[in-house]
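Lab notebook, bench 4. Still working through the backlog of constructs that have no structural model yet. Next entry is a single chain of 286 residues. Request: give me the structure tokens for it.
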Amino acid sequence: MEQIIVNGVVLSATYALVALGITLIFSIMNLLNFAHGQMLMIGGFMVYYVYGVWGLPFALALLVAAVVVGAIGVLFEVLFFRRVVKVATREENSMLLAVGTALLLENVALFSFGEKQRGVPPVIAGVYHVGNAYLPAGRLLVVAISFLLIVGLLLFVQYTRPGRAMRALAQDRQATHLMGVDVGRISAMGFGIGAALAGLAGGLLVTTQGVNAGVGTAISTKAFIMIMIGGAGVVAGAILGAVALGFAEAVGYALIPGSTTYLLIFVGLILFLVLRPQGIMGKPQG
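Model written out:
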């Protein structure tokens, strides 16, 4: 049981970064970023090359992952999503565009990096004992960095001027524009930060799970599960959804064989959404 709890904490911490990134984008633009998992995958490859191949410091590799993937997010918002969100009369248009960007990133990665699974050397060696459980030092580092990033994001959104502008934009886009806020700049910033969080999560996950060009779809699916559980567009709900999925995985992989874990997770998710389609912390009206 203690090992299950430790594994659940490690999974929840990293998944929370993924869920917060996609939630930030959704709350600001009312857009589900289907390419979020692919952005995470790009971040993993950045760390693989900067740290694993070129031998540069891991902290620098994480910074490169955040900057590169954040820049991709800003470019996608400015070049693709801004106009579609502004002029489209149906939400399906932006959804199809998001699917298209996911396929674009995945195929570019497949062409550039191939199908091979990649991993990196351990960032830090050692194993800690937590009661009767074992916690590798590398996984503890992932938890610590994830926790610091989550706290930093929450403080940024709550107490900084751009963060307050993002919250205002999430509540009422037109009123925010009338108050003199540069809506385009804040939208690009929010999309960039959400993408950067995906890049950082990918950089952390590559140290424990490796990365390949096809991992993005599975990660995006997990991200959607988390926000459906917690409530779309709700920051606290994203964290709650990450904890729920992380511990469900930890319990399932410890007690249930093979792929049955996610079969049961999907069945449970369907039953949950039938009873509470807005998620735990979402509003009934959306």
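Notes after review: The chain is about 75% helix and 5% strand. The first helix runs from residue 2 to 29. Flag for follow-up if needed.
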